[in-house]
């Protein structure tokens, strides 16, 4: 999974090209832009919501279905100076989602393993 | 440039056809196109065709006649039909053949498309976590586009309302019942901001076109040619926002639709303002809006006024998707891009019946877009 839990704060595992410095997610061995070698890099814990949508019906396999289907949010979170990463959101209510809102990486248990999601950061 | 003409166009109705194979629909479309051209299968010198889920096009010779012709199977996602057409046009322009057929057909399982991450060079968790759904891309790209260009949800409803109104006038369409904007906005939310009736469904259908070089027209006494002024096929460049993208760069590159449309217009020496009738990929309401602007047919944000004033309806300033597009016809992937060209050919000939664009349209345009970032465009004229 592309998530690092070793430091206590869940962080996404990305890559940075040693040749052209482009950031890629998920981590791959070779840079898709220049073919250079890529080193592992961790993204910041927080970003902002760049765009979002909702998943209103149950996807077909290989989606790991767990119990009765509940709609979920999906979005791209922008990590300033790095890139935008797609992921599930912990919030699915359109009234509570807004482009530009702060989001943080969280670890979630899905199908007996740990994955990542983005959660709105309490702005209060 | 050598002139290439469409001299035959045939279609098998779109929708659901239990008990009829995709290949059988393809054969039906080829016979219809040949009949339109006044040709026999044995006259066809080359063929290109394909489907995504319904079998190998070249096996149609079992029904059409194993004449020994070169028949190339094409499989290029949503651009399968467009790719067949581009391949055929290239072969004719090269002078290798005088007359050929492009055929596309499909028959998909019900429900949304199902994709395996391994087939798309993606990690397994991407599919397991529920991120590998095409409608999420539509919703996410559109959400940002509406934010950037101040487009309200009612414009999305107006796109779908027009599509079903046009579908009701189209004998071969799948969805032939008009729906009001209120009904469209009130249907279940599937991929915010897109409701059920703003999204097209995978479906079934087939289209065939007969093309020839200008000199070959002498043999066709009753031909009513539609000229294929240009075809352009482009794939994505680094940094474009495409379906199934686990990440995006901070600086996005223009979509392949932008590149394909520009090339098609330039090589035809036609300006977007010259277009009298257009077909653009409308897998959902937002795609039609975005593609109109990406193809240069309007400015970003201008769509709100275009749809509020009915400019894209039949009889409007720029009629778009006069047969109801993907929304009313569904999307049999292999056939869909050729359906667009079929519709423009029918409109330019003046054969579109109840959905005919008035004023004898002279110039048409088509645009198809698909995963993982491929677009094909054509410019046609009488």
What would your notes on this structure say?
The complex is a heterodimer of chains A (124) and B (382). Chain A has 124 residues and is an all-beta fold. Chain A has a single domain (3-120), classed as OB fold (Dihydrolipoamide Acetyltransferase, E2P). Helices cover 0% and strands 45% of the residues of chain A. Chain A contains no helices and nine strands. Chain A has strands spanning 3-4, 11-17, 23-24, 38-42, 46-55, 72-78, 84-89, 102-110, 113-120. Chain A has a five-stranded antiparallel sheet, with no helix packed on it. In chain A, strands 1, 2, 3 and 4 form a four-stranded antiparallel sheet that branches. In chain A, strand 8 and strand 9 (113-120) form a beta hairpin. Chain B is of the alpha/beta class. Helix content of chain B is 34%, strand content 20%. Chain B has helices spanning 22-37, 61-64, 80-93, 124-128, 134-149, 153-168, 181-186, 256-268, 285-294, 303-308, 325-329, 333-349, and strands at residues 4-15, 46-50, 71-73, 99-107, 189-191, 194-195, 204-213, 226-235, 247-248, 277-280, 363-370, 374-381. In chain B, the strands form two sheets. In chain B, strands 3-2-4-7-1-8-12-11-10 form a nine-stranded mixed sheet. Chain B has a two-stranded antiparallel sheet with strand order 5-6. In chain B, strand 5 and strand 6 form a beta hairpin. The radius of gyration of chain B is 19 Å and the shape is globular. Chain B starts with a strand and ends with a strand. The mean pLDDT of chain B is 96. The interface between A and B is large, with 42 and 39 residues.
Q: What are the defining features of this structure?
A:
heterodimer; A: 124 residues; mainly beta; 5-stranded antiparallel beta sheet; 9 strands; 0% helix; globular; B: 382 residues; alpha/beta; Peroxisomal Thiolase, Chain A, domain 1; 9-stranded mixed beta sheet; 12 strands; 20% strand
